[in-house]
Amino acid sequence: MSVEVAAIAANRFGLGARPGDLATIGADPRGWLRMQLTAQPLLGAEELQSTAQILSGAEPIVQALRQARRARADAATAAAADPAAAPELATRLPQYLRPIYVSESRARLRSALSSDRPFAERLVHFWSNHFAVSVDKFAVLGVAGSFEREAIRPHVMGRFHDLLLAAETHPAMLLYLDNQQSVGPDSMLAHRAANRGRALGLNENLAREILELHTLGVDGGYTQADVTSFAKVLTGWSIGGGEGRLAGGTVGTFFFRPEVHEPGAQIVVHRRYGEDDQAQGLAVLSDLAVAPATAHHLATKLARHFISDDPPPAAIERIARVFERTRGDLPAVYVALIESPEAWDGAQAKFKSPQDYVISLARAMSLPLESEPRTLWAFELLGQRPFSPGSPAGWPDRSSDWDGASALMKRIELSDAVAQKLGDRRDAQQLAPEILGDSLTAATRQSLARAASPAQALVLLLTSPEFLRR
């Protein structure tokens, strides 16, 4: 195998080559990738809290805020209510949650920069984006990072069914898609509310995104009727805690509430599910996890991410067949991806996302970004703040979504800031073949040799076509 193929393994499948990585990969890049599939890519960050701990810490603030708002809304007590109480409490919640978000983001970056299993780490990022939750929704601010640690990382090297179940039952997903607010139209709670003149509604968000984004795909053969039926199946899938009659379970953990669940059988994608309570939803997820449409949808996304924006149909079918044959055994699916000859085409078909660019830059320059007080500045500058894709569809994965003159100018700005800080402590001419291998072109070599200063040479390297793409 050539250095060019080693560079493909490091830069297309991994997170960007560090000095010395291409020599480590050596003559067996496929073996280097397969070796990374032997253990779950867990995050060693003992200082980080569990979701249950995070939400338990927020619970007293939330309850106090609710009480203050009730007091202000109650005409009988409004005069006696402290007008500053609710605003003061409202600031306490972000003050509690934002440091958690920053710590999670730094730990994630630290893992990406130091990992000797960058393919496994990239798979974490891929699946975290597939099951996207976003801190743009304030309720998720403190738990987006713990969602990735608890629902994604432990299952990346297992079966898709287990990954799917962990993602859909995690409090971050339930909060993001409001399923804890969904009430079956014929449930016990709905009847009690109707007797008091109140109407409680069914929320279809989680059901729709599971079908459209997480499993079958938008062309997967489901209908609006399936979405509604599946939403009824998922009523009762909630989070522990709450007040009054709805109190129950452990705060910050998954909790099934039978009084909210819609009773009776439901038909979802041509199948009848007559199971009771939570078992009904588990049965639907089990079928969706191994459906042929799910296999094709996931194979397409993997091929688009690792091969090209318009993935070859042959590669998609090859990966999908392995998914179906193994009933969603993810390491087997990854091996099918690794063995796809299209994945080793020397052409750099993918323009790096901002996240990929920042991480690959830091790995190439051996930068300890995790110790910087402005750790997240680079992601903010380039437009991909951690854990904030903005929609359940996740961050886009096509070059056209990230390239363009404005994107290039921001990357030049970032690389210039890094180069000015490093000065002459990095030799771009020496570094270039170490991180780019045989993909380094004669034109880029010449521009590095003609640079007016070491800092300018670094900027030219970090904004070269070879480095901007993977």
Largest sheet: 2 strands, antiparallel
Residue share in β-strands: under 5%
Q: State the end-to-end CA separation.
A: 18 Å
Would you identify the regions where 5 or more consecutive residues have pLDDT less than 50?
Answer: none
Assign a percent range to the helix content. Answer: 40-55%
Mean pLDDT: 92
Q: Total strand count, please?
A: 4
State the order of secondary-structure elements, H for helix, E for strand.
HHHHHHHHHHHHEEEEHHHHHHHHHHH
Per DSSP, the total helix count is 23
Please compute the radius of gyration using only Cα atoms: 25 Å
Shape: globular
Number of domains: 3
The largest sheet has its strands arranged as 1-2
Helix-strand makeup class: mainly alpha
Topology (SSEs and partners):
Layout: H1 3-13, H2 21-25, H3 29-35, H4 51-73, H5 85-114, H6 118-130, H7 144-152, H8 160-168, H9 171-176, H10 188-195, H11 205-214, H12 224-233, E1 237-239, E2 254-256, E3 266-268, E4 271-273, H13 278-289, H14 292-306, H15 313-326, H16 330-338, H17 354-365, H18 377-382, H19 405-422, H20 428-436, H21 442-449, H22 454-462, H23 465-468
Antiparallel strand pairs: 1-2, 3-4
Q: What does this entry show, briefly?
A:
With 470 residues, the protein is mainly alpha-helical.
